[in-house]
Amino acid sequence: MKFNATSRSEQGTSASRRLRHAGRVPAIVYGGTAQPLSIELDHNEIYHALRKESFHASILTMDLGGKTEQVLLRSVQWHPYKQQVLHVDFQRVDATQALHTKVPLHFVNAELSPAVKLSGAIVSHVVTELEITCLPANLPQFIEVDLGQLLGGAILHLSDITLPKGVVYVPHGSDANPALAAAHLKAGSDSSDDAAPAAEAPAADKPVE
Question: Of 9, 40, 58, 197, which is most buried by a Cβ count within 10 Å?
């Protein structure tokens, strides 16, 4: 994805306030061998870009005065109660250096799983993103999690899926195999293995009339 930026010479609280009043957003680009660069963005353009999931998990192309540079979105500061972007941080991308970032999970086929179709389970997403490391060329916009084989009462862990090529999960603490999704059986329901229709149960002995 591509966005436009302009160099920003004035800095400080007052200068940033004037920019925001003019419909601009102060931002900074850091990382790599170059010095941090102060830039400004069009508020409407960056606001709508930030509403797209891919803008948060993609290598972005910044057009600065006709010259392009590869960057990654790092943080966004929002107004406490207005739909206004206050400040944005970007990090320069070096094709030879591994990135450390978060990538969203896309869950698919839950409605086709035995958990839902046979057990009537409710599938919940335990996490919605994963922290990963990879080279820029291997950065996925999202990681797909197929729930099509999930059973009632079961939990899907990271080890149950295959990460994209070159992508490595970054664990938090000792949790190297986090739960991604779970199929919760409704109260009073049985799993498909244990449940048997009442009509198929052996008939009880009846007194002879």
Answer: 40
Q: How confident is the model at residue 202 (pLDDT cuts 50, 70, 90)?
A: very low
Residue 98 CB contacts under 8 Å (≥ 6 apart), including other chains: 133, 134, 135
80, 27, 32, 19: which is closest to 49 by C-alpha?
Answer: 27
What are residue 124's DSSP bridge partners? 182
Name the 3-class secondary structure at 118: coil
Q: Which of 34, 61, 92 is the last residue of a domain?
A: 92
CATH number at residue 133: 2.170.120.20
What is the pLDDT confidence band of residue 129, given thresholds at 50, 70 and 90? very high
Domain count, the chain: 2
d(CA 152, CA 160): 16
Does 77 share its domain with 156? no
Whether 16 is covered by a domain: the verdict is yes
pLDDT band at 190 (very low <50, low <70, confident <90, very high): low
Top pLDDT among 204 and 36 is at 36
Contact predicate 55/73, CB 8 Å: yes
Do residues 5 and 27 lie in contact, with contact meaning Cβ atoms separated by under 8 Å? yes
Q: What is the span of the domain harbouring residue 158?
A: 99-184
Spatial CB neighbours of 191, under 8 Å, sequence gap ≥ 6: 119, 151, 152, 153, 185
